[in-house]
Design a protein that fits this description.
The complex is a heterodimer of chains A (118) and B (114). With 118 residues, chain A is an all-beta fold. Chain A is built from no helices and eleven strands. In chain A, strand 5 and strand 6 form a beta hairpin. Classes of the chains: A mainly beta (118), B mainly beta (114). At the A-B interface, strand 5, strand 9 and strand 10 of A face strand 5 and strand 6 of B.
Chain lengths: 118, 114
C-alpha cells in the first residue's frame, strides 16, 4: 500500500515551453501533497505544499507564477513549470500524506521526474 | 528553527560490515523522526520511523532509536549488503509546526563493496 506515482518519469523540452508533471496517490487519499526539487547529490528542497481544493503554499524563494500547482482531487496534484529555462532542469519529486482522520506525519514519495530543458 | 544534521559521506564499507550513520536534530516541538532511502534514479522510500522518545524503528535489518536526551536518531545495521548501496536521508516532522513539513538532512551516500 501507500504507492505514489509520477508521470512522466523523464521529460526533455525546449526552452520557453511549459511542462506538466502529475503526482497520483494510487491506493489512498491524500489531502496534502508536497513538491520537492533535488539538485544532483543534494538533499530535497521543499517547493510547495498542496492542499486539495485550495491554493498551494509556496516556500520562500519559490516563484508561484513559474511553478503552478493544482490539487484538484484527493489523489492528484500537478506541477506545471511554465516557460521553462535550462536552470529549471532538475529532479522533481512529489510526496503525499494519507488522510487518516487524525494526525499522520508520514509522507510517501513518488519516483521522481527528471526534467531537462534544452 | 528545526534542522537535521547527518554525518557527512560518502561512506564506503565492505559487505557484512557494521553500519552506523549518525543523525542529530533540533526541533521546537515534538517531532517524529524518519529515515528515507533513495536508490539511484529513484524517489525516496520510507525505511523506518519513530514517533516518540525511546521508540525504535526497524525495517530490513536497519534500526534507529529515538533518543530525546541526545536528540539523535542514528541508523544502524549489523551486516550490510551490496544492495544497501544508496543515499540515506534522516528527516523530522514537527507536529507543532502545523503543516507537518519534513525537514531533511543533507543525505549520506553509502557504497557497499563485495
Amino acid at each position: 500500500g501507500a504507492v505514489v506515482s509520477q508521470h512522466p518519469s523523464r521529460v526533455i523540452c525546449k526552452s520557453g515551453t511549459s511542462v506538466k508533471i502529475e503526482c497520483r496517490s494510487l491506493d489512498f487519499q491524500a489531502t496534502t501533497m508536497f513538491w520537492y526539487r533535488q539538485f544532483p547529490k543534494q538533499s530535497l528542497m521543499l517547493m510547495a505544499t498542496s492542499n486539495e481544493g485550495s491554493k498551494a503554499t509556496y516556500e520562500q524563494g519559490v516563484e508561484k507564477d513559474k511553478f503552478l500547482i493544482n490539487h484538484a482531487s484527493l489523489t492528484l496534484s500537478t506541477l506545471t513549470v511554465t516557460s521553462a529555462h535550462p536552470e529549471d532542469s532538475s529532479f522533481y519529486i512529489c510526496s503525499a500524506r494519507p488522510w487518516s482522520g487524525g494526525t499522520t506525519d508520514t509522507q510517501y514519495f513518488g519516483p521522481g521526474t527528471r526534467l531537462t530543458v534544452l | 528553527g528545526n534542522s537535521v544534521t547527518q554525518m557527512e559521506g560518502p561512506v564506503t564499507l565492505s559487505e557484512e560490515a557494521f553500519l552506523t550513520i549518525n543523525c542529530t536534530y533540533t526541533a521546537t516541538g515534538y517531532p517524529s523522526l524518519f529515515w528515507y532511502v533513495q536508490y539511484p534514479g529513484e524517489g525516496l522510500q520510507l525505511l523506518l520511523k519513530a514517533t516518540k522518545a525511546d521508540d525504535k524503528g526497524s525495517n530490513k535489518g536497519f534500526e534507529a532509536t529515538y533518543r530525546k536526551e541526545t536528540t539523535s536518531f542514528h541508523l544502524e545495521k549489523g551486516s550490510v549488503q551490496v544492495s544497501d548501496s544508496a543515499v540515506y536521508f534522516c528527516a523530522l516532522s514537527d507536529r507543532g509546526q502545523g503543516a507537518q513539513k519534513l525537514v531533511f538532512g543533507q543525505g549520506t551516500r553509502l557504497t557497499i563493496n563485495p
